[in-house]
Amino acid sequence: MDGSKEIVILTLAVGASGMLALAVGIILFVFFYQRKLLKRKVAYQEIEDLLNQQELKNAYALLEGQEQERKRVSKELHDNLGSLLVTANLSLDSFPKEDLEPAQLKRLKKLDNLIQKAADETRKISHSLDSGLLKHFGLQASLMDLASTLEELTNLQTHFEIQLSGSLSNEVNTELYRIVQELVNNTLKHAQAKNIRLEVFELKNEYINVIYEDDGLGFDMQDEQLKKGIGIQNIENRVSKLNGKITLDTAPNKGLAVIIEIPLNE
Amino acid sequence: MEIFIDTLRYLSNYSPLILIVILFIRRRSHFLIIDQIIIAIVVLSFTTDITLKYLIEGRNYIYILIYILIETLLFLYFFYELLKKRGILVLIMLLFFLITFVLELFFKNPVYDLFTFSLTIRCLIFIILSLYYFYQIYTLEADIFKTEAPQFWYNVGILIYFSLAFFPFLLATEILIEVFDYTLWQVHNIGNIMKNLIFATGIWMVQKR
After folding, report:
1. A34·B144 Cβ contact <8 A
2. CATH of span A137-266
3. Where are the domains of chain A?
4. Contact A1 B134 (CB under 8 A)
5. Contact across the interface for A27 and B160, Cβ inside 8 Å
6. Whose CB has fewer CB within 10 Å in chain B, the N or C terminal residue?
7. pTM of the entire predicted model
8. Taking CA atoms, what residue in B is nearest to A16?
9. Contacts of B172 (CB under 8 A, 6+ apart)
10. pLDDT in tens, A82-99
């Protein structure tokens, strides 16, 4: 009996400790493998964040470049082409008209009107590119001016409601104006809409809420190519530059609704 | 030595109380079916131990067999939920266990004999299933600490317990009948205490989901 007891004890001791060691070894392996996996995932996440940041930086640089280029073109239009047209207009005005026949006079008058119109258009384009109105009169006046221009030049009905304190930074003013400009451009180019509604509200000096709606054709939100093509990416980049949030709601033949929220204290 | 054995016996019997206390503290946690199965296993183990200790006199093998049968089904249900895509593997294991159990019923008397063969097979089954779960998370490279931390700890408890219980069950006739040295049976009790502590850790983790 003593011999068999010793065998039982030995078998139990070796067997149980062996099994326990094996189990603990496997558990430790899985545990540390999981930890390693977790660390690797965190590292990948960090790389992805860095890439996203870099991508955003590139997008901001692109926007900045666009803004500079707009200013340059605006200046060229205003200073060179605008001046030339004004000079041409003045020259035409000072042209002796006494010896001219009525038909020639009529053509001269038409030419004068055309040059005047070209000068006006050049000034408008120059202003819209450099947003001089924005600089001098602020976002509210610029948006209301945009509404009246749209009413004047297109068949669109505009319903603009703007409530701003006027103490917004230049960056916020410019970016918001460009965002609205881009949205209006999209509506004009692709939507075939009859109405545009824009609400811009400043909430307790903390947020600016922009609600933009049109009753046009809308588009498929899943179509990434289309979204890129109509400049949604550009709008998203501008919103992101201001640390804001953008929500789009649209579907084919359902119009477009865009809600943008921009924090003011960041 | 007596004190050592008694201490381990008491710890083995009352270690489920830790989980029950945690359960009471974290009663507002969102317990999934897997957590509920583990809670059911621990509560069943505790009530059976207490009942056998204080209410049943004499040879209690038949009650132990009934308890083991229910506990085995609960553990298999746990693995069925855990390895949902490989549920068939769990069903095969269930069939395998039932065959060994029925075979042993033919050759042994459940009142007087220990069903060592079925118990050992049971240990093997749960070691295999537990290892299979670890193999699965290893091959899938799943981030279990993010979503399945309690399951990981339950599985650790199961693997430790059945690895430690394998030899005591294999040698149960020798330990409890022929040699009758209850000190040797403490290997099983140590495994049981570890299992209950690790299960309690898993239940504690449920809150963090």
Report:
1. yes
2. 3.30.565.10
3. 1-130, 137-266
4. no
5. yes
6. N
7. 0.59
8. B164
9. B114, B116, B119
10. 778 878 877 877 778 777
